[in-house]
Structures are given as C-alpha cells and as structure tokens.
Design brief:
Layout: E1 2-5, E2 10-14, E3 21-26, E4 32-37, E5 43-48, E6 52-57, E7 62-68, E8 74-79, E9 85-90, E10 94-99, E11 104-110, E12 116-121, E13 127-132, E14 137-141
Antiparallel strand pairs: 1-2, 2-3, 4-5, 5-6, 6-7, 8-9, 9-10, 10-11, 12-13, 13-14
Pfam families: WD40
Organism: Nyctibius grandis
InterPro entries: WD-F-box_domain-protein, WD40/YVTN_repeat-like_dom_sf, WD40_PAC1, WD40_repeat_CS, WD40_repeat_dom_sf, WD40_rpt
C-alpha cells in the first residue's frame, strides 16, 4: 500500500503491485503535505497546508476527526506507537501533541525559530524529534 498526497487537496491509497486505487480522501482545502498510518493500520493521519490535521478511518471510508490549532501550514504528522496521540509540525514554528481520544491539543512545543518541517515519535517512548528550517533538531519529552 502506498499513500500519496497531491496539490489538488486529495490523498490516494494505492495497492501494490497492481496500482489500483483503494481509497481517496477528500476534505483538505490545500495541499496534503504528510501522512502516517496508525500503528494498527486501521486509520491514517494527514497534514495539510490548510493548517489542519485529519484522521481518516478506513472502515468508515472517510475523515472522522479534524484537528485545528496551527496558525500556518502543517508540514508533517506522526502517530505515537500506542495509537492515542498524534504529533504535528507546522510552518508556524511549533509542533503539537494531539490527544485523539479527547480530540484536543495536549501540548504545544515552542522553541524553533523557523518552520518545523518534520516530527517523529521515538517508538514506544514519550520522546519526540522535530527538525526545523532554523537548521536544528530538537528532542522533546511529550509528558512535560
């Protein structure tokens, strides 16, 4: 399975090796900039230039949650290995930790001096890694 974003505000999931489209996601109003599978493989998180992060459920074949709170484009997103949290990286110089169960932002990580371009959880831990256009990498403790 391959997921691709595009500048027409859609993402598409392709089956390999035949290339058939399995599912298409519509809802973002700007480019789809990042995506990551839920650890169970049942959901997908996407980030977008429209400042939102969306959770897609494959069984429901659509968006089940839109997370809003960034002031500028969201460049990247990542699931925590437990599947209850999502991290996002934004052009607004912040990253956020989202609690999917309560549907809210739990923590905003501030400190980069330029766009945060990628975010990733260290597997099975509370450590988050961000990279920025300010030419730095930062490690964060998502619990504090």
């Amino acid at each position: 399975v391959v997921v691709t974003g595009s500048d027409d505000h859609l993402w598409k999931m392709w089956a390999l090796p035949d290339g058939d489209i399995i599912m298409t996601g519509e809802g973002h109003t700007d480019l789809v900039s990042g995506c990551c599978f839920h650890p169970s493989g049942t959901q997908l998180v996407t980030s977008s230039g429209d400042t939102t992060v969306r959770i897609w459920d494959f069984s429901k074949r659509g968006c089940i949650l839109t997370l809003e709170g960034h002031a500028r484009a969201v460049w990247d997103c990542s699931w925590h290995s437990c599947g209850d949290f999502v991290a996002s990286a934004s052009m607004d110089k912040t990253s956020k930790i989202w609690d999917i169960n309560s549907e809210r932002c739990r923590y905003t990580m501030r400190g980069h001096k330029d766009s945060v371009n990628s975010v990733e959880f260290l597997p099975f831990s509370n450590t988050v890694l961000t990279s920025s256009a300010d030419k730095t990498l930062s490690l964060w403790d998502a619990r504090t």
